[in-house]
């Protein structure tokens, strides 16, 4: 995570949201319908008997109060400090760049906000994925780092055509900036001219156009 350029939360979701949401597809395919189980003493989350991954804890969401509590502010749960490193780094980043999202210990929100934070953190820390572990009264937000997940990653160009529209339907952002960042992260060669973007990767081409507000107008692909 670089502090060289101050970014707003909207900039961050545009920069990291696409590739992070892409990674969620890989995690979902890998864990299937397995239930989760977290062991904070070991610092891991498990899905069934075969899949166990190291985690970092970002925070918790309460369904009843509809509030998000950052892990660094959750003194009652005695979360091991080594599992709060990323949460602490996000707080420091927020303090340096005046981002209340990362510095307000507890705030009103929705499950959508939990995913918003998860996507940003997953991208900023180059995590394998994030996971919202629902335990009934609330949910635990974690990032996951595992070679097992990384090795299942698909670079299929056609995924862009489904993931990107999903991303911009969920969150406000600069669509042109977000698509360019997503395609760069997937190793496309990206060219932009005014409100047009073209990108190529291994013989596949994606072309997009945007309106005067940088909102997506069209997205098409010629995929090999």
Descriptive keywords:
224 residues; alpha+beta; 2 domains; 4-stranded antiparallel beta sheet; 7 helices; DUF6882
Major sheet attributes: 7 strands, antiparallel
Given helix and strand content, the structural type is: alpha+beta
Strand content: 25-35%
Work out the number of β strands: 11
Helix share bin: 25-40%
Number of helices: 7
Query: What is the distance, rounded to the nearest whole angstrom, between the alpha carbons of the first and last residues?
Result: 34 Å
Average pLDDT number: 94
Q: Give the C-alpha Rg.
A: 18 Å
Using the alpha-carbon principal axes, give the shape: globular
Note poorly predicted spans: none
Order of helices and strands: HEEEEHHEHEEHHHEEEE
Question: Any chance you could write out the topology, listing elements then pairs?
Answer:
Blueprint: H1 9-31, E1 36-39, E2 44-47, E3 51-62, E4 67-70, H2 85-97, H3 100-103, E5 106-108, H4 111-124, E6 129-134, E7 138-144, H5 147-150, H6 159-170, H7 175-185, E8 189-193, E9 196-201, E10 204-210, E11 216-222
Antiparallel strand pairs: 1-2, 2-3, 3-4, 3-7, 4-5, 6-7, 8-9, 9-10, 10-11
Overview of the structural elements:
The mean pLDDT is 94. Strands 1, 2, 3, 4, 5, 6 and 7 form a seven-stranded antiparallel β-sheet that branches. Strands 8-9-10-11 form a four-stranded antiparallel β-sheet, with helices on one face. It is α+β, with helices and mostly antiparallel strands and 224 residues long. The longest helix has 23 residues, at 9-31. The chain contains seven helices and eleven strands. It has two domains: 9-150, no CATH class; 159-222, no CATH class. The radius of gyration is 18 Å and the shape is globular. A hairpin with a 2-residue loop joins strand 8 and strand 9 (196-201).
